[in-house]
Design brief:
globular, 44% helix, Alpha-Beta Plaits, two-stranded antiparallel ribbon, 14% strand, alpha+beta
C-alpha cells in the first residue's frame, strides 16, 4: 500500500500516461485483451506513471502482461516520438481472492 501511495503522488520521473493519447492506447489495449478473451477485465485506472487493473487472465499472467506491455510500449513510444524502455521491467502484481457467499454474508 505504501508503494501505491508513493506512485500515485509522483510529480517527477516518466509521466507519459498523462498524455491522453497514451492513456487511451493503454485503456484500449486492456479492453482488447478482454474482448479477445485473453483476460477478464473487472476494473482499471490509468494513472500518470502506472496502471491499476483488476483482471483474471485466461492463461499465465506473465504471458498476457508481456504481450500488453510489448505492444503498448512500441505504440506509446511512436506517439511520444521516443525510443527505449517504456514500462518497468518488473510488474508489481497482487493476486487476491474474494469469496462471496450470500448465505454467510447476508447478501453483501
Amino acid at each position: 500500500m505504501e508503494m501505491d501511495r508513493l506512485l500515485d503522488a509522483a510529480r517527477t520521473g516518466p509521466l507519459w500516461l498523462r498524455n491522453p493519447a497514451v492513456a487511451t492506447l493503454v485503456q484500449n489495449s486492456l479492453i482488447h485483451l478482454h474482448s479477445s478473451s485473453k483476460l477478464e477485465l473487472f476494473a482499471w485506472v490509468v494513472m500518470a506513471n502506472h496502471v491499476h487493473a483488476i483482471v483474471k487472465p485466461a492463461g499465465e499472467l506473465h504471458i498476457v502482461l508481456k504481450s500488453l506491455k510489448g505492444y503498448t510500449a512500441r505504440q506509446a513510444n511512436k506517439l511520444l516520438q521516443r525510443s527505449g524502455p517504456f514500462w518497468q521491467d518488473e510488474s508489481f502484481d497482487h493476486w487476491f481472492a474474494m469469496v462471496l457467499s450470500s448465505s454467510r454474508s447476508g447478501g453483501i
